[in-house]
Amino acid sequence: MSRSIRLAVIPGDGIGQEVVAQGLKVLTAVLPQDVKLETKEYDLGAQRWHATGETLPDAELESLKQHDAILLGAIGDPSVPSGVLERGLLLKLRFAFDHFVNLRPSKLFPNTSTPLAGRPDIDFVVVREGTEGPYTGNGGSLRTGTPAEVATEVSLNTAYGVERVVRDAYERANSRPRKKLTLVHKNNVLVYAGHMWKNIFDKVGQEYPEVTTDYLHVDAATIFFVTQPERFDVIVTDNLFGDILTDLAAAVTGGIGLAASGNINPTGDFPSMFEPVHGSAPDIAGTGKADPTATILSVALLLRHLGYEQQAARIEEAVAADLEARDGSARSTDEIGDALAARVAG
Amino acid sequence: MSRSIRLAVIPGDGIGQEVVAQGLKVLTAVLPQDVKLETKEYDLGAQRWHATGETLPDAELESLKQHDAILLGAIGDPSVPSGVLERGLLLKLRFAFDHFVNLRPSKLFPNTSTPLAGRPDIDFVVVREGTEGPYTGNGGSLRTGTPAEVATEVSLNTAYGVERVVRDAYERANSRPRKKLTLVHKNNVLVYAGHMWKNIFDKVGQEYPEVTTDYLHVDAATIFFVTQPERFDVIVTDNLFGDILTDLAAAVTGGIGLAASGNINPTGDFPSMFEPVHGSAPDIAGTGKADPTATILSVALLLRHLGYEQQAARIEEAVAADLEARDGSARSTDEIGDALAARVAG
Ligand SMILES: CC(C)[C@H](C(=O)O)[C@@H](O)C(=O)O
Ligand SMILES: CC(C)[C@H](C(=O)O)[C@@H](O)C(=O)O
């Protein structure tokens, strides 16, 4: 564990600025006195693109690389054509820094709302592959805009890429009390990629005899997310299925305002990046209504990744206690940040 | 409206046999006396494959073509490698008969269970594209089974294919009281296919000024399915997203036991095929526990497609009344079929 943290901060668009400010507040409050926190802010996102046409220049990518981790708020604005910032900035970072483990825990905290009747006991984590599948930007369009247009999207999957994320998921499952790992894919239709995933899943599983395994098609998995979410412990899945499932998971566990995520490169070759699952929510930007909890929980994942397990746990306990203590009255972004900073410091 | 129906019946595997028997029972009961129903049963599925290695021989495909419609129970068994029957039989039929409209209505009937608290008012229909996208079987695997394996899945999308299904969806939306159509895709990541879908959606929309439109990314759509399903009226989406969303839709509207579907070729060039969304459920096959309601509702879609609107509505009303009258005691597959046959005849 290093006694200094060089943190790159990308507040981004919309509520990104506001929630990141609270994340930094809590991070500062929880860190031991002798840990030096150096932050460098990067002006990236919609505004920058409008001003300069740039999404992520090489120089900035290089500069980001010199950090221990990245904290990102949110990227995206309706004024920018769909895909420009996603592909040119957010996904570019995930790919350039080889964030092959996209980690998304889902937990139904006490005293939070869920659309599910009966409040099932939800506590699972999705290990979403982050560098392959339908996200590689492979594909094209022919005769664009004409009645004879053909558009393709290619899902690229490699044994190299699948094995490393599957192994990471087994490690995580093996270290949890229930030791259960579910593979989600669609191998009855996407037979090439699906069978490769399943074969690798079975092969690596032989090294983890204590982990119970299960396989579900993605369509069936969505059913269990709402009818029996307590059956899940760790889930491993491809980039697109993971995208879909983790939004659904967030929805059933108190909403997108609480869902944290880490884009992790476990090798340490590149900085990992932590961000809330929610978007930039331009409709509430600047109103103080954004819930910074997802960002603050992302800070916990960041700390855990850098070896500050105790501090990570302290944030998670603070969030649980804070939610438990809520009386239903509305609190501003700042007030929630203050409350959590006070709890982790105390 | 023809005064005879030549119906091909593919009971298939597991509970397929049992539920199809009830579907035929209700069909016979609801049809006017003077309509001649000719059925021909096809032995296709797991058993046939084990016995002969065949999934769908050309001769049978030709023979199926001579019918007005197809009623299918369920296909699939754990004893058959994943993908063999799906690709070789079920999807082969959808593709060979150009079933480009995969119609899946979702309605929360009174007195049925939903995992959602607050029982929202759900009544929407998903128009899932049925002949393109990631379902075309395009892709492959190189160095299969080695650590250097690469597997691809290609999503193929054509303006021709997208426009016809989008137009169908606008027609359906235009004929419903709320007149609302939502496109679901992921055009911030799958930019080639996604932008084509969105452009065509906007273009065709100009012909339907009374239809209100909306666009959602697929991940966000899953959130609204559980937090605000009443916002949806008609949804149009691609083959894979439609697969995922309709299982989720079934889960929130009383379960997969009630979800009907039609694989429709609106041109009439080929017979359309009607089937419950659920699978073959081998674990309960033969126990009389299967709920035939989804199949019976699929028969209603079949009748509507063939022009028997009144009879279709009678089945749907019978199902609603039957569910309403349930007292919670378990009924067998047969008993449910009998009850519904009695109601539609009465
Ligand atoms: C914004 C978008 C590119 C992104 C994704 O699809 O991965 C988001 O939905 C997420 O889940 O982080
Ligand atoms: C069995 C499978 C091939 C099929 C599909 O993916 O379309 C099923 O899930 C469905 O929704 O009808």
From TrEMBL, chains A, B:
It is found in: Cytoplasm. It comes from the Bacteria. InterPro entries: ICDH/IPMDH (IPR050501), IsoCit/isopropylmalate_DH_CS (IPR019818), IsoPropMal-DH-like_dom (IPR024084), LeuB_actb (IPR023698). Its cofactor is Mg(2+); Mn(2+). SUPFAM superfamilies: Isocitrate/Isopropylmalate dehydrogenase-like. Its EC number is 1.1.1.85. Residues 6-340 form the Isopropylmalate dehydrogenase-like domain. Binds 1 Mg(2+) or Mn(2+) ion per subunit. Pathway: Amino-acid biosynthesis; L-leucine biosynthesis; L-leucine from 3-methyl-2-oxobutanoate: step 3/4. The record marks Y135, K186 as: Important for catalysis. Belongs to the isocitrate and isopropylmalate dehydrogenases family. LeuB type 2 subfamily. HAMAP family: LeuB_type2. Homodimer. Catalyzes the oxidation of 3-carboxy-2-hydroxy-4-methylpentanoate (3-isopropylmalate) to 3-carboxy-4-methyl-2-oxopentanoate. The product decarboxylates to 4-methyl-2 oxopentanoate. This is 3-isopropylmalate dehydrogenase.
